[in-house]
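Here is an idea for our session: we take a single protein and study its fold together. Which protein we use is up to you, so please pick one and set it down. Once you have written the record down, we can walk along the chain together:
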Amino acid sequence: MLKYLLDEHIPPAYRAQILRRAERLVPSVEFDVWVIGDPDAPAKGTLDPEILSWCESHGFVLVTNNRRSMPVHLSDHLNAGKSVPGIFTVNSDVSVGQLIDELILIACAGLEDEFANRITFLPIT
C-alpha cells in the first residue's frame, strides 16, 4: 500500500476527503496520508531536497503541485545515489474529486515500486 505525503501547497482538507472516500469505497484498506507540518512529518517551509530525503527514509510518495523545480530536485537526489518511492505532480486543472479518486485507485492497484524514482503527472486516467 502506498503512503502519501501531501506537500504544503496541496490543501490539507484533501487528506480528510481521501480518507473519507477511501473508507466508503474500500473500507478494508487502511490509508496512510500525511501532510507537511504534521507531527513527525517535515515542517512547513522544509526545503524540497529535505522532503525527498524524508520520503525516502519513511517510504512516502510525495503529492505536490511543484512542476517547476521538483524535476531538478529529483534528478539531484537520484544522482546522489538516493531513491524515492515516487512523486505525484498534480495538474492544476484536475478536479478535487478526480484527484482523490486517482490517489485511491493508485494506492489500491499500483505495484509497490511502480512509481519509484520518477515523477508521475496526475491525472493518469
Notes: The chain is about 40% helix and 15% strand. The mean pLDDT is 93.
